[in-house]
Design brief:
The complex is a heterodimer of chains A (299) and B (192). In chain A, the strands form two sheets. In chain A, strands 2-1-3-8-9 form a five-stranded mixed β-sheet. The two termini of chain A are 34 Å apart. Chain A has eight helices and nine strands. In chain A, a hairpin with a 5-residue loop joins β8 and β9. Chain A is of the alpha+beta class and 299 residues long. In chain A, α1 packs across α4 (88-102) and α2 packs antiparallel against α3 (42-61). Chain A has two domains: 1-148 and 276-299, no CATH class; 151-271, no CATH class. Chain B is α/β, with parallel strands linked by helices. Chain B has one domain: Fe-S hydro-lyase, tartrate dehydratase beta-type, catalytic domain (fumarase, Alpha-Beta Barrel), CATH 3.20.130.10. Chain B is built from six helices and nine strands. In chain B, a hairpin with a 5-residue loop joins β4 and β5. The chains are: A alpha+beta (299), B alpha/beta (192). At the A-B interface, α3, α6 and α8 of A face α5 and α6 of B.
């Protein structure tokens, strides 16, 4: 790969990564504004006002809207015809480092067990990168997520007995949000995974979290469960920020996979009111488009 | 009218505050999170550049930038989960004499008891509102324990009308988030 092309590739990912720390994706911001509008409790309204003020200040001053810019996670869908496949890992790591130093993002990453801070959000296994192949495509689809501390804490997965059924799934989700939701900065984005084992259920919950708010599972019964859990969680009235209000969540997404008849795996991943995720396409000629922030990037 | 606490914070300033009240802070504020609490409580090492007696700490790990003159400033600083410090906070209050603990979400029984016994309060700053908070920091006056890295170091700041701070634990043993949790649980029990 030519050096100038490589630099362009790095710059594109770097700017996308830094931008994601400053602006909320369109779906999250729109839903947050809608919830602020719908809120009727006075103290809760004050909290929403503070969040919306924070969003405008971040845009105006070009600063990360939350100091916890998380651990950077990239989810990459690589077209089998994309020409620069071998360079992707190095480019993502360099872009994460540059975005950290230049935006600046908070250098969060500490080495495993030693707890030494590496200073630039790169390290052994950081940024976190996951690859998927897309046969026949010449594009690279890059989704990134900033995994903050507070909103990662509620994450867990468990294998239920099949007889516990849908009620068992709901109970697990409600209990988890009751125990940990307050500290995860609600209103929350809730991702739920349903699978065979603890690991696949957890992975599916993350995939669910990456899906925009307001979208539904294409599997009708799962889509129905998304609505039921959303209504159930909202009736707890935990948001904003655990002070108590009329609702709890920005949205509930579920990703399910056909599973073993003897197990019912359920995973949960949560994002805060400031869920920062980005979605972009990089074409073979390295031109690119950002899908997640069309509205927020309009000036 | 805004109720503003100023450091050093006398017991008089906080004794009548009740959970749910909104206050602001003017004066000196130091960040202190997991590693800082460990150092004070376990290693018995006190910070050297600030006296926390009648002072205020903030459970927070900031993003710090440098301006064109090389002076450090707060880019973004919001609260972190206070509950992580629960195991150490009661001893921290006793050893330092700190009066105001600011963080995110609530704290639990041991901290509530210590607040009552030693005359301190815990307040929650709206989580995630980190640029709002950074704009209320007048300057970074010092830093120590940089060996922990940027998020965990002890940053000493001059703040002006820093808030809104919602009293979550008062000096009378009341705990806002524990009360809320009971309400949320009752609602959940109706669902399942």
């Amino acid at each position: 790969m030519e050096e100038s092309l490589k630099q362009k590739f790095i710059k594109t990912v770097e700017e996308f990564t830094g931008m994601t720390g400053i602006y909320l994706p369109d779906d999250v911001e729109a839903r947050l504004r809608e919830m602020a509008e719908q809120e009727t409790i006075a103290n809760a309204k004050t909290m929403y006002d503070c969040m919306l003020k924070d969003l405008s200040l971040a845009k105006e001053l070009h600063r990360p809207l939350c100091q916890d810019t998380g651990v950077i996670q990239y989810f990459v869908e690589v077209g089998t015809e994309f020409p620069y496949q071998a360079e992707i890992p190095e480019i993502l790591v360099t872009a994460a480092r540059n975005a950290t130093l230049n935006t600046p993002l908070r250098p969060n990453v500490v080495e495993p067990l030693g707890e030494h801070n590496t200073g630039d959000n790169t390290g052994y296994g950081a940024p976190y990168i996951e690859y998927e192949l897309v046969p026949g495509s010449s594009d690279l689809r890059l989704r990134m997520y900033m995994a903050g501390g507070g909103c990662s804490l509620p994450g867990r997965s468990k294998v239920l007995m099949p007889l516990e059924g849908v009620e068992g799934v709901k109970k697990f989700v409600y209990q988890t949000i009751l125990d940990w939701g307050v500290n995860a900065c609600p209103p929350l984005c809730v991702g739920i995974g349903l699978g065979t084992c603890a690991a696949t259920s957890a992975m599916l919950s993350k995939k669910a979290l990456l899906r925009p708010i307001g979208t539904h599972s294409s599997y009708p019964e799962v889509a129905k469960l998304e609505d039921e859990i959303r209504e159930g969680l909202n009736s707890l009235g935990i948001a904003p920020l655990g002070f108590g209000g009329s609702q709890t969540v920005l949205g509930v997404n579920i990703e399910a996979a056909a599973h073993h008849p003897a197990t019912l795996g359920v995973g949960i991943s949560t994002g805060c009111w400031a869920t920062r995720r980005g979605d972009m396409i990089i074409h073979a000629d390295l031109t690119s488009e950002i899908l997640s922030h069309r509205k927020s990037l309009e000036v | 009218m805004k109720k503003v606490l100023t450091t050093p914070i006398s017991y008089e300033q906080i004794k009548d505050l009740k959970i749910g009240d909104t206050v602001y802070l003017t004066g000196m504020l130091a960040t202190c999170r997991d590693s800082g609490h460990r150092r004070v409580v376990k290693d018995k090492i006190m910070p050297e550049k600030i006296d926390l007696k009648e002072g205020a700490i903030f459970h927070a790990g900031p993003i710090v930038g440098k301006d064109e003159n090389g002076k450090q400033y707060m880019v973004s600083i919001g609260p972190t989960t206070s509950r992580r410090m629960e195991a150490a906070e009661a001893d921290f209050i006793e050893q330092t004499g700190v009066r105001l603990i600011i963080g995110k979400g609530g704290m639990m029984e041991k901290t509530t008891e210590a607040c009552k016994k030693f005359g301190a309060i815990h307040c929650a700053f709206p989580g995630g509102c980190a640029v709002v908070a950074a704009q209320e920091v007048e300057e970074i006056s010092d830093v120590e324990w940089m060996d922990f890295g940027m998020p965990e170091a002890l940053w000493i700041m001059k703040v002006k009308e820093f808030g809104p701070l919602i009293v979550s634990i008062d000096t009378q043993g009341n705990n806002l988030f524990e009360n809320n949790k009971k309400i949320f649980k009752e609602r959940m029990d109706k669902l399942i």
